[in-house]
Automatic annotation (TrEMBL):
Signal peptide: 1-23
Domain Calcineurin-like phosphoesterase N-terminal: residue ranges: 46-116
Protein name per its UniProtKB record: Metallophosphoesterase
UniProt keyword terms in alphabetical order: Signal
Organism: Hymenobacter cellulosilyticus
CDD domains per record: MPP_superfamily (cd00838)
Presence of keyword Chaperone: no
The UniProt record lists the keyword Signal: yes
Chain ranges of the Calcineurin-like phosphoesterase domain: 127-215
Domain of life, source organism: Bacteria
GO molecular function: hydrolase activity
InterPro entries: Calcineurin-like_PHP, CarboxyPept-like_regulatory, GpdQ_beta-strand, GpdQ_catalytic, Ig-like_fold, Metallo-depent_PP-like, Metallophos_N, STPP_CPPED1
Length: 278
């Protein structure tokens, strides 16, 4: 279905953000994840003694958001079905495409460091928006590679953003689709769409589980230049291939917490699958 790239002033949201975080599942035991956000000087993805932590970087579990301390350290509890991720700060970029998020395990205490590199970012920049790729076969990817990837390869844009429906209900093509997007040669971020659901999960709340394995959290935020991109998952999966367009209470709490750390005068974009009311 369609997609949306919405830009609104923040005051419009505060009436909407009065939701509380949902209670933890009675079958879920929260774990602790701690680590350091650091500048990876040699680009190997591992923190070494001489590599300093970065203070004030936001890290989230999908609801709570904590800034790193003066040494770049953070600590969070895990939440059911959610990844732990860093909000890409202005002037930095992940060293590796998957290096900004972490899939928690069942271990009681876990360590997840996030490796960043310094990056030059212009306040005025271009973003490539890819709407409804809907790859369902190798043939679809062949056409995408030749009609899109080759055309964009040398373009001077900052990053690409898919606007939902990376696949057409065929999650088996995720690995090859991810490889096709990587061939763009620029950072690629994604939006969860209704055709990206895993229909085989027992609980609808985990319908984004396969998507998250390949593309990261289904909602998150990143900063580029003076712009905040707050990516939302407004596909409410109801089971039996049914869905409706709305944002979960978890996301509303995440939004509330994020805005408390942000400058209201900044430019803010809200990429999502379904249009929001104006």
């Amino acid at each position: 279905m369609g997609n949306s790239f919405v830009r609104y002033a923040w005051p419009w949201l505060f009436g909407l953000l009065a939701a509380q975080a949902p209670a933890q599942s009675q079958h879920f035991t929260p774990r602790t994840v701690a680590g350091t956000v650091f500048v990876d000087q040699n680009g190997n993805g591992r923190r070494e003694a001489a590599e300093a932590g970065v203070a004030g970087v936001l890290v989230s579990n999908g609801v709570e958001i904590v800034p790193t301390d003066t040494q770049g350290r953070y600590r969070l509890s895990t939440r059911p079905g959610r990844l732990v991720f860093v909000v890409k700060p202005r002037g930095y970029a992940p060293v590796r495409p998957e290096g900004w998020y972490y899939q928690p395990t069942t271990a009681s205490r876990q360590t997840a460091d996030f490796a960043l590199r310094l990056a030059v970012e212009k306040n005025a920049h271009q973003v490539v928006l890819l709407g409804d790729i809907q790859a369902g076969s190798q043939d679809d990817l062949y056409h995408f590679n030749h009609l899109v990837t080759e055309e964009l390869y040398d373009d001077p844009y900052a990053f690409a953003l898919t606007l939902g429906d990376i696949t057409f209900d065929e999650l088996g093509v995720y690995p090859k689709t991810k490889a096709s997007l990587a061939a763009l040669g620029k950072p690629v971020y994604a939006v969860f769409g209704n055709h990206d659901q895993n229909y085989e999960v027992r609980e609808a709340a985990y319908a984004d589980s396969t998507y998250q394995r390949y593309f990261g959290p289904s909602y998150y935020a990143l900063q580029y230049g003076r712009t905040h991109f707050i990516v939302l998952n407004d596909v409410a999966c109801l089971g039996q291939k049914k869905y409706e367009g709305r944002v979960s209470s978890e996301q509303l709490t995440f939004l509330t917490n994020y805005l408390q750390h942000s400058d209201p005068s900044s430019c803010t974009c809200w990429p999502c699958t379904f249009p929001w009311p104006k």
